[in-house]
Fold this sequence. Notes:
Distance between the termini: 64 Å
Strand order of the largest sheet: 2-1-3-4-5-6
Number of strands: 6
Shape: globular
Helix content: 25-40%
Order of helices and strands: HEHEHEHEHHEEH
Largest sheet: 6 strands, parallel
Amino acid sequence: MRISGRTLSTLAAALALVLTPLVAAPPAQADEPDPVLFVHGYKGGAWNWFDMKSDFEDAGYPADRLEAMSYNPFQSNVTTAEQIRNEVDALRARTGAEKVDIVTHSMGGLGSRYYIKFLGGDQYVDDWVSLGGPNHGTGIAGVCSWAITSCKEMKADSTFLAELNAGDETPGDVNYGTFWSHCDELINPDESTLLDGASNTDVGCVEHAWLLVSDHVSQVTRDFVR
């Protein structure tokens, strides 16, 4: 039987419709994660984050989207907040990201909270994490508060904390998470880390410095910001 050209065209079109679903679509590209700024605590430095940064890289974070800053831990947390603002601006400019995540240890939570609440950081921070932060003060600050500005600001009755915690403790469209330990020997009371409006998680019995290197803490931190 002779098949006309029109019939062949019709058959070809029908065959194309049948085969189209069988052609595998190219895999979707995963969105790049927010850049992460790591902020150390009292007497710390960028080196505090070596282990956790490595964990983030092993989990698929590009190294150029992970930044650990250093600052003078004896200065006012207000000054530190201004430096955090500059670091966030630089990280956003370098990566082209609209927002960043901030992961903090101990006193690093105070300067970063000040940045978010008073310096416009709520516009540029997506997720914020406090590991053992003295968010409502710590009794041990009395040891050095007579001589060091940042220590004075960590006292539970400090003017700095009264201002920082007044009204909304978790302002803006930011996802706040605190991770605290009931074995934290430097944050007293342990529950000082918790914030109203945040996701507050007890990570178990982990000493203050070990919050930086605990595999479990690192994992829950990555889960939270991801």
